[in-house]
Amino acid sequence: MRxxxxxxxxxxxxxxxxxxxxxxxxxxxxxxxxxxxxxxGRTDIRKYGCNTCHEISGVPGARxxxxxxxxxxxxxxxxxxxxxxxxxNLMRWIQHPRQVEAHxxxxxxxxxxxxxxxxxxxxxxxx
Length: 127
Ligand code: HEC
Fold this sequence. Notes:
Layout: H1 2-16, H2 23-32, H3 38-48, E1 78-79, E2 83-84, H4 87-95, H5 97-100, H6 113-124
Helix pairs in contact: 2-6, 3-6, 4-6
The chain binds heme C (HEC).
Residues 48-50, 52-54, 66-68, 70, 73, 79-81, 93-94, 101, 104-107, 109, 111, 119, 123 line the site of heme C.
C-alpha cells in the first residue's frame, strides 16, 4: 500500500513539474543553441548545483535566493546586466562568469562546453 502511494505521488510529481517541456520548445531550443538538449540541460542544472543559488521553474527544488530567479531568462535583453542575451553569451556566462564579471558571486564551476550548451537550451525555454 505504501509503495503504491509512493509510486502514485512520483507519477503526479512527474506530470506536474518535470515534463513541462514540449517537443516544439525542445526543438526550438536546439536550433537556437546549435544542438543543445534542453531535457539533458535540466538534469545538468541539478548536477552542477545551480539550483542552490537560483530559482528555476521546472527544476524540482530550485529555490535558491543567492542569485536572481532565472524565470523569463529566455526573453531578457541582458545576462547579468553585462552581456547581450544570445545563446553563445549564455554559454559563455555559464562556463566563465568571472571572465565576464571578475567579482560576481557566481562561481566558475568547470561546466563543460557540451553541458553549457544543454543548460543554455533549457534556459532558452524559460519565457
Ligand atoms: C554560488 C551561487 C551561484 C551558483 C552556484 C550559480 N549561480 Fe548563476 N548567478 C549567481 C549570481 C549571484 C548571479 C548574479 C550575477 C550578476 O548579476 O553579477 C548569477 C547570475 C546568473 C545568470 C544571469 C541572470 C540574469 O538575471 O541576468 C544566469 C543565466 C545564471 N546565473 C545561470 C547559472 C547556472 C546555469 C548555474 C549552474 C551551472 C549557476 N548560475 C550557478 C549565483 C550563482
